[in-house]
């Protein structure tokens, strides 16, 4: 996602009831720690409902609008990135589950446009570029979000809770423990201690 969308998500968090906001922050942090080892649902899903549907990210809005051919090309690229990550983890002595590395949401053929509207891949790419252009106006934070946090909101939230260095170290230790013996007890204790990160923000 763009930094602009990340900021919008954080604003939505600040506007939630404290208990819901804190739980969602913990869900985002849990997602950050476990996404290499399990196929996780989006932290913003509550059952079948999206908690931020009216303000959902562009990637969610575009799902089901891409042509099948383009979406499959994106799936191949995504899988290549995850294979590179798998190789890096292996260099650290951790072998990630192959089913997680290979996973990609299947193409959605069920989206129907209202009225006489038509959408093609070029239009979607233009819209994505426009959002990125707006986000670039927030540099240097935009650049930091892309280059340091890899455009990952869950990484940003985890770093807000623990510091970036600590978040990365904890992720390695938690992933290694889950791979070795399925241990998630330490993670449960870490999440229990996470404070309300956004309390008091305007």
Description:
This protein is an all-alpha fold and 202 residues long. It has one domain. It has helices at 3-14, 18-34, 58-62, 68-91, 98-102, 121-136, 141-147, 153-162, 164-181, 185-192, and strands at 45-46, 49-50. It has a two-stranded antiparallel sheet. Strand 1 and strand 2 form a beta hairpin. The longest helix is centred in the middle third of the chain and has 24 residues, at 68-91. The chain is globular. The mean pLDDT is 94.
Task: Give short descriptive properties of this protein.
2 strands, 10 helices, 202 residues, single chain, mainly alpha
Walk me through the topology.
Layout: H1 3-14, H2 18-34, E1 45-46, E2 49-50, H3 58-62, H4 68-91, H5 98-102, H6 121-136, H7 141-147, H8 153-162, H9 164-181, H10 185-192
Please outline the major beta sheet: 2 strands, antiparallel
| Coarse shape | globular
Biggest β-sheet: strands ordered side by side in the sheet: 1-2
Q: What proportion of the residues form beta strands (DSSP E)?
A: under 5%
- The N- to C-terminal Cα distance equals 23 Å
Continuous helix count:
10
Output the radius of gyration.
18 Å
Mean pLDDT figure: 94
- Secondary-structure element order, N to C: HHEEHHHHHHHH
Tally the beta strands. Answer: 2
**Total domain count:** 1
Low-confidence stretches: none
SS content category: mainly alpha
Helix content: 55-70%
Provide a quick synopsis of the model:
The chain is mainly α and 202 residues long. Helices cover 60% and strands 2% of the residues.
């Amino acid at each position: 996602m763009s930094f602009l969308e990340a900021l919008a998500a954080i604003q939505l968090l600040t506007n939630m009831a404290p208990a819901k906001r804190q739980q969602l922050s913990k869900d985002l942090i849990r997602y950050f720690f476990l996404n290499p080892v399990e196929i996780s649902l989006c932290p913003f899903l509550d059952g079948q409902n999206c908690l931020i549907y009216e303000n959902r990210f562009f990637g969610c809005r575009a799902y089901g609008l891409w042509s099948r051919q383009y979406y499959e090309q994106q799936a191949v690229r995504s899988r290549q990135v995850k294979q590179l990550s798998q190789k890096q983890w292996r260099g650290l002595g951790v072998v990630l589950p192959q089913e997680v590395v290979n996973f990609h949401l299947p193409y959605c053929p069920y989206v129907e446009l209202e009225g006489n509207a038509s959408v093609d891949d070029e239009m979607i790419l233009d819209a994505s570029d426009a959002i990125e252009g707006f986000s670039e106006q927030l540099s240097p934070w935009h650049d930091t979000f892309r280059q340091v946090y890899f455009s990952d909101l869950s990484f940003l939230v985890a770093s807000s809770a623990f510091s970036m260095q600590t978040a990365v170290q904890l992720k390695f230790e938690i992933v290694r423990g889950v791979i070795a013996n399925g241990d998630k007890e330490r993670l449960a204790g870490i999440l229990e201690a996470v404070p309300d990160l956004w309390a008091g923000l305007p």
